[in-house]
Amino acid sequence: MRDVLQYGFVNYALELLVVKTFGEETWEKIKKNAEVAMEGQFLVRQIYEDEITYNLIHAAVDVLQIPANAILELFGKTFFEFCQDSGYDKILQVLGATPRDFLQNLDALHDHLGTLYPGMRAPSFRCTERPEDGALLLHYYSDRPGLEHIVIGIVKTVASKLHGTEVEVEILKTKEECDHVQFLITELSGPGKTSCPEATQVQQTLSIEPKVSPATFCRVFPFHLLFDRELRVVQTGSTVARVMPRVTRPGCRITDILDMVRPHLELTFENILSHINTVYVLKTKPGVMEAEHQDVTQEFSYLRLKYGN
């Protein structure tokens, strides 16, 4: 029994796809087969049960006589266009100059949308390279099973429309084989890759001596945490120290006080370096926060981690 809820923009985008491609009469037939008894269009900001979406997809397969995977991939293309037409075109254009950068920053867009759609349970994405050849692997985490072909449609459309690149997207592992879906993304044509100089090639011109004392820094940035390669906390902002006094204990590690919510990877220094521009969502472990702050402090903290020698 699927009890996950979602906002109506997914159903509305599906409605637009069917009406635009197959006509209003076909959409009404799909709604009838899906036992969706409602007048008018789906409302973007209204919350619906996921079961409605799945029923609509199954009904579309029966009515259109098109395989589910093909419908979902076409929906992915339409959903991206729907997002562009809904006023997110500028945001989408600046998420990344390459398909990899775009996908790596997609969670940041979901974090932004979460402020507009409270309680939204968006999927999560992260990118890695295949060790043997450096090929791009996309890791997709979602509470909603069976929708991975939507991702294929979105990735192909993003690469084509935003980056002038044609890509092939192949499912390497399904959720049944591991805890998430893995895609292999292969560039077929495009402007080619651009390389950036290695950090070691860039001449360092700034002094390594701090211009601000640690005490001043802690007051100016009261919510910061500074940790070493062993994840031991070596410096913390004044507010963090007040609401989480355990962080000031000698030898305290980040993993002693916080759990990773997103991205979906083990919290290690090496993983942080490999995803250094990713927005990290962490939550406090039970009992870490002072009782007086339990109800007034947000459970989740949005952090962008930076690396310094």
From TrEMBL:
Residues 211-296 form the Haem NO binding associated domain. InterPro entries: H-NOX_domain_sf, Heme_NO-bd, HNOB_dom_associated, HNOB_dom_associated_sf, NO_sig/Golgi_transp_ligand-bd. It comes from the Eukaryota. It holds the Pfam family HNOB. One of its GO terms (molecular function) is nucleotide binding. GO terms for biological process: cGMP-mediated signaling; response to oxygen levels. The keyword Nucleotide-binding applies. Gene3D superfamilies: H-NOX domain (3.90.1520.10), Haem NO binding associated domain (3.30.450.260). Its cofactor is heme. Its EC number is 4.6.1.2. Residues 7-170 form the Heme NO-binding domain. Keywords: cGMP biosynthesis, Heme, Iron, Metal-binding, Nucleotide-binding. One of its GO terms (cellular component) is guanylate cyclase complex, soluble. PANTHER family: GUANYLATE CYCLASE SOLUBLE SUBUNIT BETA-1, GUANYLATE CYCLASE SOLUBLE SUBUNIT BETA-2. This is guanylate cyclase. It comes from Coptotermes formosanus. The lineage of its organism: Eukaryota, Metazoa, Ecdysozoa, Arthropoda, Hexapoda.
